[in-house]
Amino acid sequence: MKAEIISVGTELLLGDIVNTNAQFISQKLSELGFDVYYQTTVGDNEERLKKAIKNAFERADLIITTGGLGPTKDDLTKETIAKYFNKKLILHNESFDKLKFFFKDKKMTENNKKQCYFPEGATIIQNKNGTAPGCIIEKNDKIAILLPGPPKEMKPMFLNTVFPYLKKQTNEILFSKILRVIGVGESEAETLIKSLIENQNNPTIAPYAKDGEMFFRITAKAKNKMEALELINPISKKIKDILKNNVYAEGNTPIEEVVAKLLIEKNLKISVAESCTGGMVSSKLINYPGISSVFLEGIVTYSNESKINRLNVSKKTLETYGAISKQVAKEMVEGIVKNSNSNIGLSTTGIAGPSGGTKEKPVGLVYIGIYINGKTIIKKLNLHGNREKIRSRTTKIILDQLRRELIKTKVHS
């Protein structure tokens, strides 16, 4: 069954409001097995809305609208849908009684009554968090579901009424598993599994990149979750066999959670010394509950003086090589391990920008240090992007490098 989402509101087109409704509804329709090929955003204009509805029903069996159900003249969704279906708008007395009760302690203007008129024969969706109910209209094998715009009203109405209703309309579901990949770029990862993508049918494989990571969404259409997983799991295994340790987790599990679990499982104490990342590495690790059993210390040694005083970095090393150097990254990580008596140390030093770079040491040059199993590993990074992106990428890379080392490390007694 094909579905389309129409978001109504000039404020959306102006960028005054972020359209989170379409994202939410798309995700829920996907769970139910509906194919969503188009999303439309249209302003509060009857002619344009009428055209959007006509176009949507030429492509889809179901449309879901959000917005345009309020009391003002520019709230036109119900009126326009009613004209499309050639239905009269009639007063729904139960909704009107609830509206009057809502306004019992304050004056209700006449235009509020507009919210209680619905196309004849519509199923009313009660709104427990606002004044504008929604409705479901069915005619000629087409379905229109009208919901209010505010997410705090729309979401509970969708979950409590629309989702169960739509579940009865389809015998299939769409179910997805997401593989999280790091350490390999989007084009390279896609090339490595090219044969799987070229031969996909059900399930399908969708690669996409975000924030320095790669994701593969494997989606199957089936009667239930168990049948979907039977289709998905063989493909998931093939991708893992090809990409090996570059696949670090499934679903919504971030890299810091994987690293934190490994640290706790192996009982390895860690300390972190940061310069350019400004505490971001420590913050990510501390996000994980229970990390206090292994996380000893995290410090931001931003200035040269701090590196000397807190980490025992040699003044001569700083003068000879500069703060952004493999030599300083090495002394930083070894200094934090020695001072905190930890098993593992991490260090970062670099130029996040936007200024401060030179030809020899441009913005995006970063050195990371990892001390583990009695050895020090230093890596040079050349990153691109703005200040926040460079700091974020550095954080993910050093956590990933630590993850790879931890996999090879035996449990610490």
Question: How does this structure look, described?
Answer:
With 413 residues, the chain is an alpha/beta fold. It folds into three domains: 2-167, MoaB/Mog-like domain (Molybdenum Cofactor Biosythetic Enzyme, Chain A); 173-250, Alpha-Beta Plaits (2-Layer Sandwich), CATH 3.30.70; 255-407, Maf protein (Alpha-Beta Complex). It has helices at 10-13, 20-31, 46-59, 77-85, 93-102, 151-167, 186-192, 194-198, 225-243, 255-266, 280-286, 304-311, 315-321, 326-340, 387-407, and strands spanning 2-8, 35-42, 62-66, 89-91, 117-119, 123-125, 134-139, 142-147, 173-181, 204-210, 213-222, 247-250, 270-274, 295-300, 344-350, 365-372, 375-382. The strands form four sheets. The chain has a six-stranded mixed β-sheet, with helices on both faces. A five-stranded mixed β-sheet has the order 14-13-15-16-17, sandwiched between helices. It has a four-stranded antiparallel β-sheet with strand order 10-11-9-12. Helix 2 (20-31) packs parallel to helix 6 (151-167), helix 3 (46-59) packs across helix 4 and helix 10 (255-266) packs parallel to helix 15 (387-407). The termini are far apart. This is CinA-like protein.
- N-to-C span: 57 Å
Q: How much helicity do the residues have?
A: 40-55%
The total count of helices amounts to 15
Please give the CATH class of the largest domain: Alpha Beta
The CATH topology of the largest domain corresponds to Molybdenum Cofactor Biosythetic Enzyme, Chain A
